[in-house]
Amino acid sequence: MSKLLIVDDEFRIRELIKKYAIYEGHEVDEAEDGEQAVLKCRNNEYDLIIMDIMMPVMDGFEAVSRLRRFTNTPVIMLSAKGEEYDRLTGFEVGVDDYVVKPFSPKELMMRVGAVLRRSGTDKKDDGKSRFTYKGLSIDFAARVVTVDGERVQLTPREYELLFYMVNNKGIALTREQLISKVWGYDFFGDDRTLDTHIKLLRKSLGEYASLIVTLRGVGYRFET
């Protein structure tokens, strides 16, 4: 049984999600705003958080940003908006998936299941322990990435994407391969999600961003 934290200032939304989550066999806790969610996460352990963006006291973006200081618990963001800015901001602060309101509760539960399955395999290191290239160092087991001695903070999804590409360095990886391996076959998004994460990952790698090569019409390749 997985334990979910539902964070939304609207009672009816929390109740709707709670109803479907319990039906799927999950244990549920609730929070009415971001500040309350951060406090609950400091005192409890959750397997996944469903977080609304627009809330009083503390919005979802700020809440996730604070959560990422002490936990990598997967987060699915809920929003009444669908602009690229919201998606980009969400991914930058560490959101794992994004659902636009109004949403289908059944689809949301499918996304919850997909994210939970992915998070259950996060600690795999594919038989390798460390990768080093000049000032770039990746410790797969510890999930630590450093650039010229400075630790780089990545979101859980960025770690997965980087680790998979590095473990397959020199190989042309299609967009379909990357999405299926990192997001899962039941991913509901589109190619823009992959492109956004690649963009953020390159930004985090700084001078080593060029190691991620774009293959037009195909996908990406990590090469040294």
UniProtKB/TrEMBL annotation:
SMART domains, per database record: REC, Trans_reg_C
Keywords, alphabetical: DNA-binding, Phosphoprotein, Transcription, Transcription regulation, Two-component regulatory system
Ranges for domain Response regulatory: 3-116
An example Gene Ontology CC term for this record: cytosol
GO molecular function, one term: phosphorelay response regulator activity
CDD domains for the chain: REC_OmpR, trans_reg_C
OmpR/PhoB-type domain: residues covered: 128-224
Purpose of the protein: May play the central regulatory role in sporulation. It may be an element of the effector pathway responsible for the activation of sporulation genes in response to nutritional stress. Spo0A may act in concert with spo0H (a sigma factor) to control the expression of some genes that are critical to the sporulation process.
Descriptive protein name: Stage 0 sporulation protein A homolog
Protein source organism: Ruminococcus difficilis
